[in-house]
Amino acid sequence: MATTASQAPLAPRASTAPTRAVLARRAAAALATAAVLGAAGAPVAVADQPAPNAQASKLPEGLYGTKDPQYDGVWRQSLALLAQRTVGVRPSVTGVDWLAGQQCSDGAFAAFRAEPGKPCDDKTMRDTNQTGAAVQALATLGGHDDAVQKAVKWLKSVQNDDGGWPSMSGTPSDANSTSVVIGALKAAGLKPESVKKGDKSPYDALVSFQLGCDAKEGERGAFAFQPKDGKLAPNADATAAAALGGLGQGFAVAPAGQDVNEPVTPLKCAGGADRKPDTKQAAGGGAAYLVSLLDANGQHLKSAMPGAGDQPDVGNTADTVVALAAGSHGDAAQKPLKWLEKNSADWAKQAGPAAYAQLVLAAHAAGADPRHFGGADLVAQLNATGPKPAGSSAPSAGPEKDAQDQDEQGAGVWWIFGIVFVACVGVGFLISGRKKKNDI
Predict the structure, then answer these.
(1) How does strand 312-313 pair with strand 301-302?
(2) Residue spans per domain, the chain
(3) CATH class given for the domain over 27-430
(4) Residue 395 and residue 328: Cα distance in Å, rounded?
(5) Would you tell me the crossing angle of helices 314-326 and 330-343 to the nearest 10 degrees?
(6) Could you tell me where the beta strands, DSSP code E, fall in 142-206?
(7) How far apart are CA 422 and CA 39, in angstroms?
(8) Where are the beta strands (DSSP E) in 286-338?
(9) pLDDT tens digits, one per residue of 368-416
């Protein structure tokens, strides 16, 4: 379980293409890494400090987290609500209402609208990642069919000719954004392969980002964020996203069970195999690439932020656990999960609700108990970052049951964030959630 901002000087791990936003999915990881890097340098507003404008004004009622929501409000809210519902927590009505109230009349979501009562206009930075995350949350909660369908209609309207999506409409598709939208389509009850632009589906776009049999042996199966100068470069974050999206899965993955364990299978390249496998094979090839990185790094992935050195990328490691679990690679998922149990506490504390949500979703997908995770109750920690939950119930049983739960509660219920830092490495960076630079 990444981002941009306007007029930032540099977007680490982002494409050099004209897109200025990609994914908020890696926001929490970027914040925590910045905190670590900045500890020995000049003061900088990082995860453990509210941003200046967050200090100057009261945060909206129902919002999760205490930091400035300008760049990740919808993202962190969506992940928090989704993670709660996935483990049987009925979120606060005010929290759900806040998220639903962020939607524009055309169905899209921006990262944050300080005045939700004011209509969205041409300056509103609508974002496919924020919209996709909101769809996954609202569809899982149930009782928000109109909002979900409006959002899906908008997503279809900005689909690119290659079948994929960028973060911001009118820019080239990328693997991360396409994967988030695939998860949204699935959550909304659609078959992603049926949502086409011309004759191209989201899966066609996704497979086009994979390095195949003509790549170096150690890079085969990896996914690029998007082509750079017509070439593909392996990107761990894009690979984790695509390995999940290629299976038609969203952020919340049901545990496969302890007796289910499919071997991780690298791309088969003997005999001049086709460079572009089907989506299931592509997802498996991506999983194999991720496992090779985990094995090389001590069961975690490394941060690609400039100046990070050998700092682990905790958030991307959590996303990898979800992707491996989705592919029924139970044994492979357990190793990085155990690493997370021992090493994720400080990161989550600094990064906030989106980080706790990522860990909850990773533990749940891999069959662990997020209420007993490395000596911590992740669910309680997530709940503490927002309004008091309405109660507990069984995990989501479908839209009808969730709609009933919402009725019982009385419910009526741009960008991908960029954070400017890092003083300690001498330059301000716009942090991307799921955006990654192709040459990393």
Answers:
(1) antiparallel
(2) 27-430
(3) mainly alpha
(4) 20
(5) 160
(6) none
(7) 10
(8) 301-302, 312-313
(9) 999 999 999 999 999 999 999 998 764 444 434 444 444 433 333 333 3
